[in-house]
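[job 0412] stage=complex_fold ligand=iron/sulfur cluster status=START
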Amino acid sequence: MDLGAKREVAVVFSFRSPGRYALTTLTGAIEGADDLRSVTVVHPRNTAEVIACIGEQLDLGREVIAGWSFYSPSFPECADELREVRAAEKRAFLAVAGGVHATAEPRQTLDAGFDLVCVGEGERVILEAIRAVRDGRPPSTIPGCARLETGAGDVVKQEARPPRIELDQFPPFAPRHEYFGPIEITRGCIYACRFCQTPYFSKARFRHRSVENTAHWVSTMREAGKRDLRFVSPTSLSYGSQDESVHLDAVEALLARSKEALGPEGRVYFGTFPSEVRPEHVTPEALALIKKYCANDNLVIGGQSGSDRVLQASMRGHDVSAIIHAVKISLAHGFVPNVDFILGLPGEAVDDLRASVNVMRQLGELGARVHAHTFMPLPGTPFRDAAPGQVDDETREELDRLASQKLLYGQWKLQERVAAEMAERRDQSARGYGSAVTVVSPSDDA
Ligand code: SF4
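[job 0412] stage=complex_fold status=DONE, emitting structure tokens
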């Protein structure tokens, strides 16, 4: 073998929702790497296309890295897709999985047939994986990857994670491939809501994209003819902050520069899909800022429960009165509040559930819309071992009533089923092998 020869590499991203945001970001990371300009990246949108794309790239003599990114609910369908692809394409390719589920459950993910799991954020890992394949080095030992070592006992070996990125180091999307999306302005979260994967995946610290870097990418969007700008953030009004405080000067700088860069035709959306705001951050001053610069007529507010006891047990960091106050002042400033609620959180007794439903009705009657979810015991969270959320018949009827009055929406019924399946998989995994992972080298940034 000529060790000096570089191989041609193609990356095939299974471009299915909701992993598209992450895969768009990774495509942007590849675009931004000068030494990887010759790498082909393709984005098939269904299983037949994944099979066809991998086949075409192999026919061209390229080494193929196939990538999936998924949350816990979509793990089974991605695992099924890989099985179908392997059945159809017998030639070798490297199947890599990333995202919050793979990070929290590397063993389960590797057992599903993926060759490598990217543990944590993927920008550096995908670049190093491509370079390793291109240079003929084993990609399994690059920092941030977990792999299954078969043999006595089949153990998962995980290389220590690389240092976490700063958002300014990487593009938020992939302009050369004409894939645009919301700009991630904040990664990680200092709050520690016990049901949420974000702080456990991306570290309990905020990392913000700078105003100037954001404006640069907004200009790129504008040059491509894009007019609507949305942001990704775990808590929009935390922009520029490192703690619970709100820095409206930083938020204003971001919105003003973004609007300027987007031009007079552009529309900026903030504190709404695909992001949200925490209720205690909603103040008249914050709303006035959003009104001044943004086009949204609604806000997404994380409420989660109408029981103070449940909010406290979930470490939400606010109480029910904060939710009601946020809704009232949002309405007073002309925003329709969409308030997230989670049904069946651990420790939620019947009284708590009744309290939640009462608050939902109260908010609905004020003019808000309730977005109902069912609790899922997500891997990697403190609630991972809890029972899946369930809704009793009386609550179910009341929720249906609210929905028929257009006061409530959401996939809570589907999520009830998904949560039960997720808990079943978790229990099966625990019976099978536990979750032990050997970290090969110590991380200074775990
Ligand atoms: S629910 Fe929101 S505020 Fe709470 S930890 Fe998750 S991202 Fe942060």
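Residues 167-432 form a domain with the pyruvate-formate lyase- activating enzyme fold (CATH 3.80.30.20).
[job 0412] exit 0
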